[in-house]
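Example record for the data management plan.
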Amino acid sequence: MGKDSNNTGFDYFTVISARVFDFVWAVSSAVIAFYFRFATVEVSIHYQSLILMGAVLVSLCSSFFGVYASWRGRRKVGLIARIFLAWAIAVGILLALLVFSHQADYFSRMWLGTWILGGTLGSAVFRVVVYKALGNLRTRGINHKRVLVVGAGNSARSVIASLKHNAWIGFDIVQIVPVDAAELSDPYQGISVGGEISDISSMVEA
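Corresponding structural encoding:
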């Protein structure tokens, strides 16, 4: 827990960028797939409607499955898996709507498959590139968050060592808060030890 040690707004910008990219890329990848299938970008009104509906469903499913949550310090494999899941559910809903409305035969299956493949892979690659760039910035001291470590035992020391070793995560430990008085000790690796669990809220807001 903690807050930005510099007011860059990178996390907010990253989320907004991801949302915009996903919607724009869902539309763009569909148009690109249409060009490869039909050798034209003059998309008919029926395809336009389906593309727009698909882009909206992808955005909604991505939000539902936590794609736009903060993934700082977490394994990106989980993020990629959720992107694939969001696209799979969105496509499933879209196909169900086409079947129940008896509209499935009006659309090219090759185009649909190309769109799904390109859209999913493009969204995943975008995340890999962005998080790689953010990791490089955080290694240089940009877009860091100030955090508290609760507990002063071996587990806490392991967490501290991991955060210090992985600078790309971008967490700056400002204080260690012991769980009980028995854990009180001198500063550990230059980090002060003190405070109480009940005071964490005020510490974070300070």
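Summary line stored alongside the record: The helical segments are 10-38, 45-64, 76-100, 109-139, 154-165, 200-205.
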